[in-house]
Design brief:
homodimer; 212 residues; Arc Repressor Mutant, subunit A; Tetracycline Repressor, domain 2; elongated; disordered C terminus; DNA-binding
Chain lengths: 212, 212
DNA sequence: AAGTTATTCTATAGCTCGATAGATGGAATT
DNA sequence: AATTCCATCTATCGAGCTATAGAATAACTT
């Protein structure tokens, strides 16, 4: 083989090794203080480096925001699409969508929070790019709901759009309190699923008790 | 009587007549760009006055934020308390709470939005003061829910805290989309109430069909 | 060890923004 | 007409922030 030393075009092979660490710090700071409330100095302090050193990794503060937001949405849409494609009943799929929507809070909470609250401050270009994912995910919820209505699983006449916005609002809000409240993601997801599917009311004296 | 001309301490009687207009402009700008993203120049532009003239009405940008936030919560708590005190069944009260929580969006949307998204940037002092109202309102929801469970109206075992956070999240999210979506507040409130009380699911072959 | 590449540093330019001070003009009061 | 008060204006200070330029060090390769 003629792989003498190394493909000459990528000798160093890995540059900016700390890059992920840098955007993680940016996510933390943006989540705490908001994009405009945060300074690049704040981010540098978290990393223990000088403010100017950040620019070795990131071309601008806004670019950092975009990277953080991207990690905040990536996966959501793909995961959602996979769930919607399953052959399961709609109620099952909706539950899975809720779980899938809450899970990233565990390992990427700051990224999600920044995506939800700060994406409006992205430059128009990248905001549109990221908004596409958002709307895609909304459509997935709506489709699953419509499907459930068509199959008779869900009430006829319910407004799929409003229900979608309700469920997403409910889930997204979790990013702002899930650290303070001491509930695990599975417990939250279970309660939420049950809430939107079965509601809070006791069935008026008619649970399905095996049929006696 | 010696009230010769006028109570000397308040001769002019009404000063800063435009004050409400000024904080309305602040609410608009804070809602659009966020507290730190907004400049006092932006606010002045909306009013058609010079940036420095704002300081005749407001002692600082942060003070303006507090005024906006105050108008964003005021009323919520009082209205909620009145509803909780009614003799109606819990499901009825919960519906009213949802309506009451969505209504301010009509005439004070920007104030509510700013309260929800920007209160974190208030100086510690006023943030605590405002946080008290917030928590009070949460407690009202929780109590009504607990009450409903105790009365057998709501499922036993549901987590009042999580349900409260779900309902509030759902309602609060509306502040970010109710302008774009073309739904009236009553329609939204009705769909949301029905959702959390009855759920989406069709009753599993056992609506109360008169009993056959 | 020498050379090269990767990473961080110092220093600072260039803005923008919040806030203050004091002047100006108009309206109301006497 | 003279006086007082309200509202807005002009001008500017000083601080803080993003971003750039180029030097200095650390790490790696040969």
């Amino acid at each position: 083989m003629t792989v003498a030393t190394l493909p000459p075009s990528r000798r160093g092979a890995s540059q900016r090794r700390r890059a992920p660490e840098i955007i993680e710090a940016a996510a933390l700071v943006f989540a705490q203080r908001g994009f405009h409330g945060a300074t690049t100095q704040d981010i540098a302090d978290v990393l223990g480096i000088r403010q100017a050193s950040l620019y070795y990794y990131v071309s601008s503060k806004e670019a950092a925001l975009e990277l953080v937001c991207l990690r905040g949405v990536e996966g959501f849409f793909e995961a959602g699409k996979a769930i919607a494609a399953r052959p399961d009943p709609a109620r099952e799929k909706l539950s899975l969508l809720i779980i899938s929507h809450l899970s990233p809070m565990l390992d990427r909470g700051n990224f999600v929070k920044v995506f939800l609250n700060e994406r409006q401050h992205l430059p128009a270009e990248s905001r549109r790019r990221i908004g596409r994912w958002s709307r895609g995910l909304e459509r997935i919820f709506e489709q699953v709901i419509d499907e459930g209505v068509a199959a008779g699983e869900f009430r006829a006449g319910l407004d799929a759009r409003l229900v979608t916005l309700a469920v997403l609002g409910m889930c997204n809000a979790a990013s702002s309190w899930y650290l303070k409240e001491n509930k695990g993601v599975p417990a939250i997801a279970a309660e939420f699923s049950r809430l939107v599917i079965d509601g809070m009311a006791t069935r008026p004296a008619k649970r399905p008790p095996k049929r006696r």
